[in-house]
Amino acid sequence: MYKVMSGLVVPRPIAFVSTISADGVPNVAPFSYFMPICSTPPLFAFSVGQRGDGQKHTLANILHSREFVLNIVTEDIAEAMNASAADVGPEIDEFQVAGLTAATSDLVSAPCVAESPANFECRLVETREYGAPPASTRWSSARSSSPTSTTAS
Ligand SMILES: Cc1cc2nc3c(=O)[nH]c(=O)nc-3n(C[C@H](O)[C@H](O)[C@H](O)COP(=O)(O)O)c2cc1C
């Protein structure tokens, strides 16, 4: 069913989600099961599948800090966005893997992508789990501040 759903529901925007781990390692990864769900208050939701029998780092980091940044993807950083989806260990800084710059956010502990033209700094509202492992999916919704613009350095 994954192929049918992801092949027919196109095009999809990308939630380019940056987080920081409990050990302080910056992380960034793309998620296309994503949408804005409310404007007042500003809420977004995206879904994270399982990796093998474990959690993807994005979800583990968000459950720990309850914060993340949704970075807007432009064509200029599309290749870097794809590179950040690499399956690497939690000790690896995926900003470095992708050749992107981790900038300090204004309101949350998670870094933002400096090369993105706009970033929503978000706090977790809730997560819901659907299906059974290893194919389960966690649907996270988060409240956001107004988007901030960053300048690439
Ligand atoms: C364009 C694109 C869209 C993706 N969308 C999703 C998605 O919606 N849900 C998901 O779990 N993984 C998705 N992935 C795969 C994750 O980005 C990938 O598993 C990544 O390694 C997760 O990183 P993390 O372990 O640092 O969180 C997508 C990958 C790409 C390239």
Total number of domains:
1
Please tally the β strands and state the result.
10
Rg over C-alpha atoms, rounded to the nearest angstrom: 14 Å
Bound molecules: flavin mononucleotide
Task: Write up this protein.
The protein is α+β, with helices and mostly antiparallel strands and 153 residues long. It is 18% helix and 37% strand. The chain has helices spanning 2-8, 57-65, 78-83, 94-98; strands at 15-20, 26-31, 34-38, 43-51, 54-55, 67-71, 102-103, 112-113, 119-130, 137-144. The N and C termini lie far apart (42 Å). Mean pLDDT is 90; it is low at 149-153. Flavin mononucleotide (FMN) binds at residues 14, 27, 29-33, 47-49, 56-58, 82, 85, 87, 94.
List the helices and strands and how they pair.
Layout (H helix, E strand, L loop, with lengths): L1 H7 L6 E6 L5 E6 L2 E5 L4 E9 L2 E2 L1 H9 L1 E5 L6 H6 L10 H5 L3 E2 L8 E2 L5 E12 L6 E8 L9
Antiparallel strand pairs: 1-2, 1-6, 3-4, 4-5, 4-10, 6-9, 7-8, 9-10
The structure holds flavin mononucleotide (FMN).
The site of flavin mononucleotide has 17 residues, from β2, β4 and α2.
